[in-house]
Amino acid sequence: MKKIFVLLLLITLNSCAEYPATHIPHIAGYWEIEKVTLNDGSIKEYTFNDTIDYIQITDSMSGLRKKLKPNLMGTFETSKSMEIFSMSIENDSLYMHYKTPYANWKETVLKADETQLIILNTNKDMYLYKRYKPLDLE
Predict the structure, then answer these.
(1) pLDDT tens, 51-65?
(2) Which keywords describe this protein according to UniProt (predicted)?
(3) What is the pTM (predicted TM-score) of this model?
């Protein structure tokens, strides 16, 4: 039953999708995982994240992605490691192609707007991100 739900959700998202290039301007920024729907239909909710994803678009069809750790001072701790990606539009879908010394993979951008980013990886796991908002301690 869960697999059917995930399949229907993917079909709905794809059928309602705008032209994929309209997602590109919204991908850049700081993103926090809200939940992941695994390919078996199970859902993992994230109520707290100690890391966030920073995505930078370096030109119209490429960019980089880094994991950042927010701290209480309002800045971020990061390692020097990052993933470089290129984007392509194929069969009415936007893909992010990653290549590292260890692996190559691609992800499908199902949705990207001001508040949400939804990505489907090669394992058919769907990641729902929300824009990162710094913790307000006042």
Answers:
(1) 999 999 988 799 999
(2) Signal
(3) 0.81
